[in-house]
């Protein structure tokens, strides 16, 4: 293309018709985007609540607003699905930016429910002892005050609480809702940042162990920003390759449907080096978000340092959103490249499963242990992603739904076991917990058995589905590795159970706080989903099956 | 001038930024290196936009600038809070949690 032809795109001769008037008004399908819009609207309203509502009413106002927003958004998702947007009416909305289809709606529903359960753990105010007569939650009295300083003591004495966590949670949820439904690379990147930035902040807001919390936030932020810079460069290269950031167009160029006709573009359009490097960089950014080895280094530190309710929410919802985006990228944009990415993902899945399971054995902190277990689970889910069959999609959807509730429940149980310094996360303190608090220990045992994939729990149904899909998709060796690492992982889950039920309680052991109905509800939902998906998974497997078709 | 040269420059800037993230120890400098990587991406977007003759890349560059600004807000808040509680912004000192 000649230089003057290119310049004519953004300059115009004085006599030519005004090109601006030729740009059509974008058509936005508000109804189909309503789940995201509701959550964003509530988040903005939450910021206004912070600004205008008196401090003592803020907590309740925020809690009611956030709960209502998440429930209404979930109802909107269900109504869209009932209208057939998940199956027959699947379409691309918002001028090609957002896909409204089965996987998107299924994952949005999962994220909203997980966020609702996570919200209840955020709002829990009975666990910490009352500070100067005010009930406090797990978040810093005033995040800006230096730990241990007079200003912090003053903030605690005044009974401040960080109610900003609710709008931050909603903003993160909004980004997560867009992430798996993004249909062009720009939307993907913006959604990635919109859900990451609030999470960085939430990580820094712990009330106890604030130095660790701030350290976790710095690590998460620097590594997360580093990874998203790589994603962005990958997007730039793919844009150079295809001349568009739309998923459909890139897929056509990858398939060869759109031929390179312009010799002036021979340097970029259709250049395989740009495609391969660009795709690798974007996939790398997404693998960072799901915490797959070798991009997992942040996971244990961030999971350990962040406030436990945030860890639970982050572990569940981020994984759902990031795997949704990864599925769409690999299945919609890059299916023409699957002979290139499958071997790489094989390798990543194998080292993720084995690495997570083996390193978890040596852990002595329950939060770090759950972090490494989440890495191993990312590997199991990757096995389903690699299948590249419709069953692969639906099994991953089912696994994500099952896994997210177990995770939030498990971290909610961790918040209950406390000593003078806050949560007692060191495993040695958990010895004999089953004798002192049989119910709490039994609930955690259910979650750990679900993580391990014991039959009659959701973990078994999920693992069976992904391994079956992987085996049918021609990845049988991967299934063998998966089963071996499940066995390794089962060892340390069982070890915790044995520790809780079969060792003597220590005299200086932790106490189990009596939670408010909020945490009880979060844990109860976790147990119920774990058992229902384990005993009668068929309805939900069918649901995931119906939802397993991407729109292009 | 052949616009491909700008792509080489973008790749070079990106590499300098990535190297800086890996070898520098001050959190602020690490963060500046990340910003350099984002700006290298911008240069690549604008160059590809010129080569393809469509405006998508330039629009994306605006979005990237806004994202980079938002990242500065969040990142500096976190780094400053770390610095105020430790009197050090070194990423090596932040090592309370280790295996």
UniProtKB/TrEMBL annotation, chain A:
Pfam families on file: Proton_antipo_M
Stretches that traverse the bilayer: 32-51, 63-82, 102-123, 158-179, 185-206, 218-242, 273-298, 310-331, 343-362, 369-390, 396-417, 438-458, 478-502, 514-536
Enzyme class name: translocase
GO terms under biological process: ATP synthesis coupled electron transport
UniProt topology in membrane: Multi-pass membrane protein
Domain NADH:quinone oxidoreductase/Mrp antiporter transmembrane residue range list: 182-488
Lineage: superkingdom: Bacteria
Function: NDH-1 shuttles electrons from NADH, via FMN and iron-sulfur (Fe-S) centers, to quinones in the respiratory chain. The immediate electron acceptor for the enzyme in this species is believed to be a menaquinone. Couples the redox reaction to proton translocation (for every two electrons transferred, four hydrogen ions are translocated across the cytoplasmic membrane), and thus conserves the redox energy in a proton gradient.
Name of the molecule in the record: NADH-quinone oxidoreductase subunit N
Species in which this protein is naturally found: Streptomyces humidus
Gene: nuoN
UniProtKB/TrEMBL annotation, chain B:
Transmembrane feature ranges: 6-23, 28-48, 60-83
Alphabetical list of Pfam families matching this protein: Oxidored_q2
Enzyme Commission code(s) on record: 7.1.1.-
Keywords from the named record: Cell membrane, Membrane, NAD, Oxidoreductase, Quinone, Translocase, Transmembrane, Transmembrane helix, Transport, Ubiquinone
One of the GO biological process terms: ATP synthesis coupled electron transport
Catalytic activity: a quinone + NADH + 5 H(+)(in) = a quinol + NAD(+) + 4 H(+)(out)
Keyword presence, Manganese: no
Subcellular location: Cell membrane; Membrane
UniProt GO molecular function: NADH dehydrogenase (quinone) (non-electrogenic) activity; quinone binding
Entry membrane topology: Multi-pass membrane protein
Lipid metabolism keyword on record: no
Gene Ontology annotations for the cellular component aspect, listed alphabetically: NADH dehydrogenase complex; plasma membrane
EC top class named in words: translocase
Assembly and oligomerization: NDH-1 is composed of 14 different subunits. Subunits NuoA, H, J, K, L, M, N constitute the membrane sector of the complex.
Family, similarity comment: Belongs to the complex I subunit 4L family.
Entry function: NDH-1 shuttles electrons from NADH, via FMN and iron-sulfur (Fe-S) centers, to quinones in the respiratory chain. The immediate electron acceptor for the enzyme in this species is believed to be a menaquinone. Couples the redox reaction to proton translocation (for every two electrons transferred, four hydrogen ions are translocated across the cytoplasmic membrane), and thus conserves the redox energy in a proton gradient.
Name of protein: NADH-quinone oxidoreductase subunit K
Source species: Streptomyces griseoruber
Gene for this chain: nuoK
